[in-house]
Amino acid sequence: MSAERVFVVWEPVLATDDEAPESNALGRLPLARQYWDPQRLVSAAAQPLILRDRSNFTGKARLIEEETVWDYIALYPPGMRWEREFPRPERSGAPVADVLDRVMPRLIR
After folding, report:
1. Strand pairing of 7-10 and 33-36?
2. How distant, in Å, are the alpha carbons of 19, 50, 85 from that of 96?
3. pTM score, two decimals?
4. CB 68 within 8 A of CB 40
C-alpha cells in the first residue's frame, strides 16, 4: 500500500463559493485530508512559483480575480515539508481534470 497522502485545499473563487464545501463535494475525495482556505493563503503562496517556474508545470494555471490559483494539482515526494516558501513540486498542472491521467500513476503505485 502506498504511503502517499492527498491534501485538498478548497478556497472561494466563484461568486457561489462563499462558504466551505458541503458534504457531497467533500465526499468525492473520502481519503483526502481537506481544508477550507477562505483567505486563499495557499493560492497566494503558490502563485509566484507557478508564474516564475513553468518548467515543472503541465497545462495552464487558472489565474483569475487578483491572480487566484485554482483547479491546480501539485505532487511532492514523501517527506516534503513546506518551510518558508511554497515548495517546488515534482509535477504540477491545471486544470486538474486535464492532467489527472498523467499524475494518477504517481499516486497509485
Report:
1. parallel
2. 21, 15, 22
3. 0.75
4. yes
